[in-house]
Specification:
The structure is a homodimer of 207-residue chains.
Chain A: H1 2-7, H2 18-34, H3 41-47, H4 62-86, H5 91-108, H6 110-118, H7 125-152, H8 160-172, H9 174-177, H10 187-201
Helix pairs in contact in A: 2-3, 2-6, 4-5, 4-6, 4-7, 5-6, 5-7, 5-8, 5-10, 7-8, 8-10
The structure holds a DNA duplex (18 and 18 nucleotides).
DNA-binding region (chains A, B): 40-59
Organism (chains A, B): Janibacter limosus
Protein name (chains A, B): TetR/AcrR family transcriptional regulator
Chain lengths: 207, 207
DNA sequence: GTCTATACGACGATAGAC
DNA sequence: GTCTATCGTCGTATAGAC
């Protein structure tokens, strides 16, 4: 699961190392389940099949592990969104595709998504700043689509910025409530219904 | 701020005690800011002007403090919602009022709201169960309004349950991003725009 | 009901052998 | 690069004086 994400960002050299991949997976499991401060380095190490000291060969600190995870997660999400936006023929198509794709990502990668969205505050100030830059790129993709739809007359929106935030809120909250096996809900069904809901939020003319 | 919430639930006898109120406020500040496990009992105690030991006269444990805060917060939110729903003349009015009110609550009480929504998993299993009962009552208010609107023909909705979840997602996410002083956004403006957005989500016939 | 003092385990991180 | 052993600190919670 996580390897899908990491393989999309081969720029991180550490990803060639299977121990690092296991540490990423262990940390993603643990942070998503118990939160950053609820997770111990011993917990992560044992899930990855290492001694407590083994973590520090690959990461400078627990916070560094959270940061790398957040960064990789944001990059993967941003790239998936930008690709979806580029393929669309109109703002209406673009919004539906982008929100569908992002909703699917929040469900399929719900552990990473949860960390990305809810453990942000436990990053150091410098790391928060770096992640925030990536996050603004994601927000900008959605805002731009809505602005284009308003300009073309396809959308009817009061305030572009706050409507973009609302569409993203729908999607982000998936990471809070979704878990695999939840009743009659799959990443696929979420993707379908959330694309349509986003079109309603912007008052798209055709349904 | 918090005293507004607590005064709505005089059934909790401890609220007559100003030290307990100070502890609630200190814990709400700290938990909202740094999360449950990121907050120390020393931190809470000093914010409330007590020694570390002083907390345990009033609360059995740090988890107990989180539980009482979650419970009071849920009860306040549920009562505010139910009141808003009762005053409405139609499903359209009811949905707009309820979502407006709940969005306003998430902004005004964003610290308690954040704790209620994001620190839930750190409660003990028994306490999770108790809080979950209250949460289902909140969900049921929204679901019932949407079902009534579908029945009356005012709303056009695919799936009542998932649409209710989406409307609540919009609102819940306010607790993640809102903080006082955020650019051109007030609890009042959030309440207004979110009521309208919820009507769009359900395909309400009149805007 | 609040304090000072403290028990005692768990924490993140490091040292040094292999 | 991984281990065992451990350092120094801080965590929750309690004991007992006032």
């Amino acid at each position: 699961m996580l390897s899908t994400v990491t393989s999309q960002t081969p720029s991180l050299p550490a990803h060639d190392n299977p121990t690092v991949v296991r540490l990423f997976e262990a940390a993603a499991d643990a942070f998503a389940d118990k939160g950053f401060h609820g997770t111990t380095t011993r917990d992560i190490a044992s899930r990855a099949g290492l001694s407590p000291a083994g973590v520090y060969v690959h990461f400078a600190s627990k916070e560094d592990l959270l940061f790398q995870l957040s960064r990789v997660g944001h990059v993967a999400a941003r790239d998936a969104l930008a690709a979806a936006a580029d393929e669309a023929a109109s703002p209406t198509d673009a919004l539906q595709e982008v929100i569908s794709e992002f909703a699917r990502w929040h469900a399929e990668q719900h552990q990473v998504a949860r960390i990305v969205q809810y453990e942000f505050r436990h990053l150091s100030p410098e790391h928060q700043r770096e992640v925030l830059t990536l996050r603004r790129e994601i927000d900008a993709v959605v805002e731009r689509i809505i602005a284009e739809g308003v300009a073309s007359g396809e959308f009817d929106v009061d305030d572009t910025r706050s409507t973009a935030l609302a569409a993203l809120s729908l999607v982000v909250d998936v990471a809070r409530w979704y878990h695999p096996g939840i009743k009659r809900t799959t990443p696929e069904s979420i993707a379908n219904s959330y694309g349509a809901l986003a079109l309603r939020l912007v008052g798209a003319r055709r349904d």
